[in-house]
Amino acid sequence: MRPQSFVRLGRNITLSQPQKKLEKELPDARIHPVTLPIIEAIESLTINLASFMKPQSDLFPILQDITIKPISYLLVYIPFVEKHHEFIQSDFHLTINKNQLALASNL
């Protein structure tokens, strides 16, 4: 997906954090493949942090000095409801345009 959409999605999921219990089994539904390597996901954490820091003008200069060292990670599939032009996740109040995912393979 496009970088701007990726940052928006990451910020919204990070700040929403619904409290539903995680299930160990995959749902009986279509699953979109994960194509982001864990190293790149870790690198995106600083960008994710920057997307919701306030005031950005004061904190942005010190962003390069921030180091994030995750001690573990977990892949979590988030269910979306498929509509005609988009995927909707009501718990997070998110939508992903289907065309963005379709064009992502070209990036």
Number of self-contained structural domains: 1
- CA radius of gyration is 15 Å
- Structural class comes to alpha+beta
Low-confidence runs of at least 5 consecutive residues: none
What is the residue-mean pLDDT, rounded to a whole number?
A: 84
Helix content: 25-40%
Principal-axes geometry comes out as globular
Secondary-structure element sequence?
HHHEEEH
Strand neighbour order, sheet with most strands:
1-2-3
Strand content: 5-15%
Characterize the main sheet: 3 strands, antiparallel
How far apart the termini lie comes to: 8 Å
The number of E-state strands comes to 3
Count of DSSP helices?
Answer: 4
Structure write-up:
There is one protein chain. With 107 residues, the protein is of the alpha+beta class. It has one domain (3-79). It contains 4 helices and 3 strands, in the order αααβββα. It has a 3-stranded antiparallel beta sheet. α1 packs across α2. The model has no long low-confidence stretch (mean pLDDT 84).
